[in-house]
Amino acid sequence: MRKNGESQAKNARIVARESKKWRVMVVDDEQDITSIFKIGLEGNGFQVNVYNDPEKALQKFKPGAYDILLLDVRMPGMSGFELYHELRKRDENVKVCFLTAFEMYCKEFSSTFPDLDEVKCFIKKPILMKDLLKRLAAILEPS
Amino acid sequence: MVFGLLVKEKLVNDDVFAILEQLCAVEFGEHNILIYNDLDSFREVYSQYVKKRLAANDIVLMLPHYENVDCVKQVLKETVMDLDKHLAEGSLVIMDSVRGFFGPDVDNFFSFLKILQQRVEAMNKGGLAVIVDMGAFYHLRKIGEMITYEQSIPAKSDTRSSLMCSYHKKDFSRLAEDQKQLLLDHHYRNLLVKDPDES
């Protein structure tokens, strides 16, 4: 099982390096988080843009510019959910993962965001880079 | 611009140290508002405030939003002596704000406060100090509910509790001018942590 996960992560790296540079946008209000993600993902062949301000991320966003978006859930000024809705209006196909350091409660989704069912991917922070790579590999290169 | 043309007589817009001085003067019954620039300044304020209230033999309830409970504990470990003891005996309660306001195990925030007020009596404590980050209401798009909730609490009352409603500046800025004014009017002290870059 573990070997399988590691090979998936390796696969993501190989894919990113050799056949395509996966393009990732990371939005998190905490700079240390975005720095770690940028260094780790770029070191594994991804092309990474990071933003600490969701509004700036929205301003700079161009449809088709990314393969996957990693959005923090709780950000002051604009939550990851709100940012998701705005970005989705601009790009219907981009894959999205939410980053969260929190235990999530049903009410956070069901009452306010009924259409959020389409988003299945939540990544719990902190996460080891090798585990993040496995998750990204599973999303970007589903078997 | 956080305040625009709002009436500012009650507003204290100063650095962390001046805000802490204000917090040292807080008495029971006060319903105050704190608007912070960033998590670092908020951490500085709440860690000193929690330390002070625990030293004064109060029960402290803290509901953070942009930090998880473990992170808050780590921050408090730097300033609060015997943090684990306070957590174990229940004189310090830290709960995620979404859980505290809307979670399955809290029937109603006010009834939860009532339980803690009874605990003040039972434990022979001085009073109850509550620090909440209002980010949960933004997160769940319940701004109307938040305004109603804020309006329902008087700026000053005859209780052995004090309440500090904390807003990230970016969250507060999203309110309409009349909503901002209304909130300021419904709090006893209006405390704004000054942006260090602000002249």
Structure write-up:
The complex is a heterodimer of chains A (143) and B (199). Chain A is built from five helices and five strands; from the N terminus they run αβαβαβαββα. Chain A has 143 residues and is α/β, with parallel strands linked by helices. In chain A, α4 (80-90) links the parallel β3 (68-72) and β4 (95-100). Chain A is globular, with a radius of gyration of 15 Å. Chain B has 199 residues and is an alpha/beta fold. Chain B has a seven-stranded parallel β-sheet. Chain B is globular and about 40 Å long. The mean pLDDT of chain B is 91. Chain A binds chain B through residues 29-30, 73-79, 81, 101-103, 105-108, 111-112, and chain B through 39, 65-66, 68, 71, 96, 98-99, 102-104, 135, 138-141, 168-171, 173-174.
- Distance from first to last alpha carbon of chain B: 14 Å
| Name of the top-level CATH class of chain B | Alpha Beta
Q: Nearest-angstrom radius of gyration of chain B?
A: 16 Å
User: Helix count of chain B?
Assistant: 10
The most extensive contact between chains is: A-B, 19 and 22 residues
Total count of strands of chain B? 7
- CATH class bucket of chain A: Alpha Beta
Q: What is the residue-mean pLDDT of chain B, rounded to a whole number?
A: 91
Order of helices and strands of chain B: EHEHEHHEHHEHHEHHE
Q: Secondary-structure element order of chain A, as H and E?
A: HEHEHEHEEH
Looking at the structure, the CATH topology of chain A is Rossmann fold
CA-based shape of chain B: globular
Class derived from helix and strand content of chain A: alpha/beta
Query: CATH homologous superfamily name of chain B?
Result: P-loop containing nucleotide triphosphate hydrolases
In short:
The complex is a heterodimer of chains A (143) and B (199). Chain A has 143 residues and is of the alpha/beta class. Chain A has helices at 2-19, 31-43, 54-60, 80-90, 129-140, and strands at residues 23-27, 47-51, 68-72, 95-100, 122-124.
